[in-house]
Design a protein that fits this description.
The complex is a heterotrimer of chains A (102), B (630) and C (172).
Chain A (H helix, E strand, L loop, with lengths): L1 H25 L3 H25 L4 H31 L13
Helix pairs in contact in A: 1-2, 2-3
Chain B lengths: L6 H16 L5 H27 L7 E12 L2 E10 H24 L6 H20 L3 H19 L6 H32 L4 H11 L5 H18 L7 H4 L5 H10 L3 H9 L1 H6 L1 H24 L3 H21 L3 H28 L17 H14 L7 H15 L5 H26 L13 H16 L14 H6 L15 H26 L1 H9 L1 H11 L4 H19 L6 H19 L6 H21 L1
Helix pairs in contact in B: 1-2, 1-4, 2-3, 2-4, 3-4, 3-10, 3-15, 3-19, 4-5, 5-6, 6-8, 8-11, 8-13, 10-15, 11-14, 11-15, 13-14, 13-18, 13-23, 14-15, 14-17, 14-18, 15-16, 15-17, 15-19, 16-18, 16-19, 17-18, 17-21, 18-21, 21-22
Chain C lengths: L1 H20 L3 H21 L3 H26 L3 H11 L1 H24 L12 H8 L4 H22 L4 H7 L2
Helix pairs in contact in C: 1-2, 1-5, 2-3, 2-5
């Protein structure tokens, strides 16, 4: 049964990942983009845990903890950037921050 | 004491560094003290090294001082090592001594100059490079000195760089000698690849062991070395740079002609004489080039108006004598003539410099005249120099060295009567132009009012050189006059003595007497043409043939014209055609397409984060597709 | 057991889909928290109670609160008050409410019958995770700590409002 669960959990992680990517691509608000990235990270973590459950190993969970740490760091910097952007550009539209245009 | 050999070249280099760094901040007195002092100390060091070397145990003929490795790669090693033997000792002593006198003289000659420190710095570098050249044990190290000398000649000939003509002369000297330098470097490559070493003694030993006499390798190597020597020593056909090198200050000319630079070629051939004995054809070429040069340059010297250009052609001609001596295997005679030439040519240049400075930097002899009473000290020293140059019998050093060469050019197994004829003819021409110079400059009606006579600082070095120009010959006397062989005996440890063909007893005396008479005839002709019956000379040059001949000789046998027409102008023409370098089009095309592509790609750089995210997603999709469907 | 797993999965997918489609950031955040909670349930089912707890405490607790702070910082004034009122309308809270209710039922069921009962999945407890984490993955822990430090410094630097004279110097 666990095997079935883990495989289904993997399918779920794929669905969540796709949704997250979709969110990154369709949203213009930088907060939503960050949120969608969190969805993708969470999906990746789910995949790790599911794989760990399948092989009955703790490594999957360890990886999840690492992803958690990374997500925390990423979110803190990303949100600080969003604050700066709002302060400087008076908007949260990611497309308006295009001064690096080549 | 020989272990302090490194001090000799180190002193002028130290002087150069000191002057280059602090020269502008100290007074002229200090600059002169540093500049002349470093060379003087180098002479003192050379003297003490020489005394201990001579006093060393018999059988010790050479001393090698290794100062460290320069290059060590794949079995080939080149090191900073100095080599002292009789030959390099003689060279070092002459260079430092004559260089020292010229430095003292310069302190007076350049007194009014702005760039005093720069001048002395270059001069010290010049001496230092030349000392490296003659002391180097390794041909690559020698080449360092060789190039250093070339660089310094460029810097000093173009010393008064504000006049573009001087820069042109300096460039010409540099480019023309570069042809010889390239030949020399090719020769070094050849030796290094075939023998695996560039240490001169090892090269000689290996070459003698591996290459039979007349073999292609020996011919190629010695011919390439000869090319280098020709360029540096201003022999036919690379002699054109030396007359133009007169653009530099007169002490520079003295240094280039007497102690450094032009004698480097003579030294190189003498140093590698074993290679040349392995290639008799090349050695004959040395003699022939020397013989041709001494006549060609001598005839040009007869027609010059500029006192320094006369001396320049005279140097070319005298180096030609040394080449003849080298070509017939009279190695020590060549070095002997180098030494006496260093004394009297330096003396002549110093005298010419004093004349020039006394007549407000006028170089044209025909505008001087009658300076004998106004500049007596200059006149007497200059006269001694001219006598020595024209080999006045018995009392001058030039006589003994030149007669030796003329004699060997016939007596040596490698010599023949054509070389001897050229030598005798050269002697005649030499005394003709030497005394033409004396008569025109110092005799006749006075055209110039000398305001200030040159000071002691200039006359004393000239006087010292004058004494040496007279007495230096007595260390090597022919059979007819005492038969002293001090010089060649001393050199015999590094240069083999010449073998002489069996000749009738008294032949040497007869030949010497004949050559001496020819020299005197030259002086006599000069007296007739340029003092006693001036109108004969005028009539000669006024005639149609005379005018043409004069122009031909005055222009140095048209060598400059020839090179301009056949080398310089075609080259400039090709360069002008190819000014927009058509090969560049390829690179310009690459540049153009690169920037185009960049413009196209930069559209994708729209600065929008989401587009980039889309790109990442797209890439991930493709990567996954490859993994799934491969 | 099956039901719990598939219900949770369904809740996760629906709430995530709603997260990325909301106009209001606060609403999206609420949906995302629901999604996280349901994923946490799935972790329980997969036999990973420790990370399930971490998911709730750190993800749903700490990180989402950070998001909430930022959203609150950015929405000030009358516009924010308007949004505030919008938050109270039924069509706003009814969606998350239903989803949370489903989750709640699942949790209750799980508490009653045990999560791992039916599947017999091997439970990998905190002890094993801890020994693995601080054993073979020690270097990873160190690297993660450095990453967090960098995140801390970066967030402090970026989040700081520049002073007026600094802005003048930047030419704005």
């Amino acid at each position: 049964m666990t095997a079935v669960y883990s495989e289904h959990a993997l399918v779920l992680s794929v669905v969540l990942f796709a949704l997250g990517l979709f969110g990154v691509l369709i949203r213009r608000n930088i907060i939503f983009i960050l949120l969608s990235i969190e969805i993708m990270l969470n999906a990746a973590g789910l995949a790790f845990v599911a794989a760990g459950a399948k092989w009955a190993a703790a490594d999957g969970q360890v990886m999840f903890i690492f992803i958690l740490a990374m997500a925390a760091a990423e979110v803190s910097v990303g949100l600080a950037l969003a604050l700066q952007m709002h302060h400087k550009l008076k908007t949260l539209d990611a497309d308006s921050a295009d001064r690096m245009k080549g | 004491m020989p272990e302090f050999l490194w001090i000799i070249p180190a002193l002028p280099f130290g002087g150069f560094l000191l002057l280059a760094i602090a020269g502008r901040r100290v007074s002229k007195t200090w600059v002169a003290l540093i500049g002349a002092g470093s060379v003087g100390l180098a002479f003192a060091a050379a003297l003490s090294v020489g005394i201990s070397f001579i006093g060393a145990a018999p059988g010790v003929n050479s001393y090698v001082l290794d100062l460290g490795t320069w290059i060590s790669v794949n079995g080939f090693t080149s090191s900073f090592s100095l080599y002292l033997d009789a030959l390099s000792l003689v060279m070092v002593l002459v260079i430092t001594f004559v260089g020292f006198l010229i430095h003292i003289y310069s302190a007076g000659f350049m007194a009014g100059e702005e760039d005093y420190a720069r001048f002395f710095a270059y001069m010290n570098l010049f001496i230092g490079s030349m000392l490296i050249l003659v002391l180097a044990d390794d041909l690559l190290f020698l080449y360092l000195g060789w190039e250093g000398v070339g660089l310094c000649s460029y810097l000093l000939i173009g010393f008064w760089y504000k006049d573009p003509l001087n820069g042109l002369a300096a460039r010409k000297a540099f480019v023309v000698t570069r042809i010889g330098d390239t030949s020399l470097s090719l020769g070094l490559f050849l030796l290094a690849t075939n023998l695996g070493t560039l240490r001169i003694q090892e090269v000689m030993y290996l070459a003698a062991g591996r290459w039979p006499v007349g073999s292609g390798m020996a011919l190629a190597a010695s011919a390439l070395l000869l090319g280098g020597a020709i360029g540096k020593s201003a022999q036919l056909p690379l002699q054109t740079w030396l007359p133009d090198a007169m653009a530099g200050p007169t002490p520079v000319s003295a240094l280039i002609h007497a102690a450094t630079m032009v004698t480097a070629g003579v030294y190189l051939i003498a140093r590698t004489h074993l290679l040349f004995t392995l290639a008799p054809q090349v050695q004959t070429a040395v003699a022939v080039i020397g013989a041709l040069t001494l006549v060609v340059a001598g005839l040009s010297a007869v027609t010059q108006r500029d006192i320094k250009r006369v001396l320049a052609y005279s140097t070319i001609s005298q180096i030609g004598y040394m080449f003849v001596a080298l070509g017939v295997g009279a190695w020590s005679a060549a070095i002997f003539h180098f030494m006496t030439h260093a004394f009297f040519k330096a003396l002549l240049f110093l005298g010419a410099g004093m004349v020039i400075i006394s007549v407000d930097h006028e170089h044209d002899m025909f505008k001087m005249g009658g300076l004998r009473s106004q500049l007596p000290a200059v006149f007497w020293t200059f006269l001694i120099g001219a006598c020595s140059l024209s080999a006045l019998p018995f009392v001058t050093a030039g006589f003994y060295s030149k007669e030796l060469i003329i004699y060997y050019s016939l007596a040596s197994p490698l010599g023949n009567r054509w070389l001897w004829v050229a030598g005798v003819l050269g002697a005649f021409i030499t005394s003709l132009y030497a005394f033409r110079m004396v008569f025109i400059t110092f005799f006749g009606e006075s055209r110039f009012r000398v305001r200030e006579r040159p000071g002691m600082i200039m006359t004393v070095p000239a006087a010292v050189l004058a004494v040496l120009s007279l007495v230096a010959g007595f260390i090597e006397l022919p059979a007819s006059a005492g038969k002293t062989r001090i010089f060649s005996t001393f050199l015999s440890s590094s240069l083999p003595a010449i073998t002489i063909r069996e000749a009738a007893p008294g032949a040497e005396t007869a030949l010497s007497a004949f050559a001496a008479i020819v020299s005197l005839l030259g002086i006599f002709l000069a007296y007739i043409l340029f003092f006693h019956r001036r109108r004969y000379a005028d009539r000669l040059t006024a005639s149609r043939a005379g005018r043409l001949g004069h122009r031909f000789l005055f222009g140095g046998w048209g060598f400059d014209w020839l090179y301009n027409a056949f080398i310089v102008r075609p080259f400039v023409w090709i360069a002008r055609i190819n000014k927009d370098d058509f090969i560049d089009l390829v690179y310009l095309g690459m540049l153009w397409s690169g920037s185009r592509l960049s413009n196209i790609l930069s559209i994708s750089q729209n600065g929008k984060v989401r587009t980039y995210a889309l790109g990442i997603a797209f890439g991930a999709v493709i990567a996954l597709a490859i993994m799934v469907f491969k | 057991m099956n039901a719990i797993f598939y219900l949770s999965a369904a809740v996760a997918v629906i709430s995530t889909a709603l997260t990325i489609t909301r106009a209001n950031a606060a609403h999206a955040l609420l949906y995302f928290i629901v999604s996280l909670l349901s994923v946490s349930l799935i972790f329980f089912v997969l036999g990973a109670p420790f990370v399930a707890a971490l998911e709730v405490i750190i993800y749903a607790g700490a990180i989402m609160v950070l998001f909430l702070f930022v959203i609150m910082l950015l929405n000030l004034g009358a516009e924010a008050a308007e949004k505030e009122r919008e938050l109270l309308t039924p069509q706003v809270w009814i969606g998350p409410g239903i989803l949370v209710a489903v989750l709640f039922c699942e949790l209750l069921y799980g508490l009653r019958y045990g999560f791992q009962g039916a599947g017999g999945a091997m439970i990998i407890g905190p002890k094993l995770v801890g020994t693995t984490l601080l054993g073979p993955y020690l270097i990873g822990v160190e690297l993660a700590s450095m990453l967090l430090l960098a995140g801390l410094v970066g967030a402090y630097h970026l989040g700081r409002r520049s002073t007026p004279d600094e802005e003048a110097r930047e030419g704005r």
